[in-house]
């Protein structure tokens, strides 16, 4: 199938450059060879009418518009792309139903366990909360290290020879993971703790599909400082 095919229907992605969930969708589009989509940068402090109309429930990015019809939430979009463009580029999900279930399990683990802990370390209002979040994130990554060994079967990616659903879902976090060391002084992907994931991250970042998707670390750092300032301001009681 030609890149961007879909009965001639326009593809438009509503996103915001810092979002790891938008990074996921862009990675998936590029892996499937769909490069002629329109990317629309949203101002999340002043959301567009198109975004609010396209995702009236959550009012969040990313939103993929295919022929004007909205698909919301990053993982839903990834699965939609697989269904809508089954012959384009990389298959994100394996053909075998059991293997698909395993991939979905580990993506849910990455979001529900790893990311949930990590976000606490970023948004925690006390040092204890931040430390507990970091400890939880590191423990989850060690579990994902074991998962990589089992899923990859000695090949370069979770999905085998080519990146797939788990690779894209976890890979969407790589930009922020690289910046986290400078923000918090903690290297989440450390060769001593998770050597397989460190090598995987380096391979993933070198993919053509990843080029131009991840923001520069300094750009993320500046944005992170803005978020920290907002968090601190919201935690300060009004006099």
UniProtKB/TrEMBL annotation:
EC numbers on record: 2.5.1.18
Main location: cytoplasm
Domain GST C-terminal residues, every copy: 96-233
Reactions listed under catalytic activity: RX + glutathione = an S-substituted glutathione + a halide anion + H(+)
Positions of the GST N-terminal domain: 9-89
GO biological process per UniProt: glutathione metabolic process
One example GO MF annotation: glutathione transferase activity
Cleaved signal peptide residues: none
CDD domains: GST_C_Tau, GST_N_Tau
CC annotations in GO: cytosol
One Pfam family this sequence matches: GST_C_2
Keywords carried by this UniProt record: Cytoplasm, Transferase
Claim: Transcription is one of the keywords in the record: no
PROSITE patterns, A to Z: GST_CTER, GST_NTER
Subcellular location(s) of the protein: Cytoplasm, Cytosol
Functional summary from the UniProt entry: Is involved in the conjugation of reduced glutathione to a wide number of exogenous and endogenous hydrophobic electrophiles.
Protein family per UniProt: Belongs to the GST superfamily. Tau family.
Protein name per UniProt: Glutathione S-transferase
């Amino acid at each position: 199938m030609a890149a961007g095919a879909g009965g001639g229907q326009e593809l438009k992605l509503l996103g915001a450059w810092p979002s790891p969930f938008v990074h996921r969708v862009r990675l998936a589009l590029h892996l499937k060879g769909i490069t002629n989509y329109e990317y629309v940068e949203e101002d999340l402090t002043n959301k567009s009418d198109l975004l609010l109309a396209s995702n009236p429930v959550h009012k969040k990015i990313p939103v993929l518009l295919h022929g004007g019809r909205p698909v919301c939430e990053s993982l839903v979009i990834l699965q939609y792309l697989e269904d809508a463009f089954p012959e384009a580029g990389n298959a994100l999900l394996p053909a075998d139903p059991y293997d698909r279930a395993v991939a979905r399990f580990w993506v849910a683990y990455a979001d529900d366990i790893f990311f949930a802990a990590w976000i606490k370390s970023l948004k925690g209002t006390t040092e204890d909360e931040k430390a507990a979040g970091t400890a939880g994130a590191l423990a989850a990554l060690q579990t994902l290290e074991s998962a990589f060994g089992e899923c990859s079967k000695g090949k370069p990616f979770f999905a085998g020879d080519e990146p797939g659903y788990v690779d894209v879902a976890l890979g969407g976090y790589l930009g922020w993971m690289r910046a986290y060391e400078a923000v918090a002084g903690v290297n989440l992907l450390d060769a001593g703790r998770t050597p397989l994931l460190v090598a995987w991250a380096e391979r993933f970042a070198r993919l053509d599909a990843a080029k131009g998707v991840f923001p520069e670390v300094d750009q993320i750092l500046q944005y992170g400082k803005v978020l920290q300032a907002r968090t601190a301001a919201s935690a300060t009681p009004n006099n």
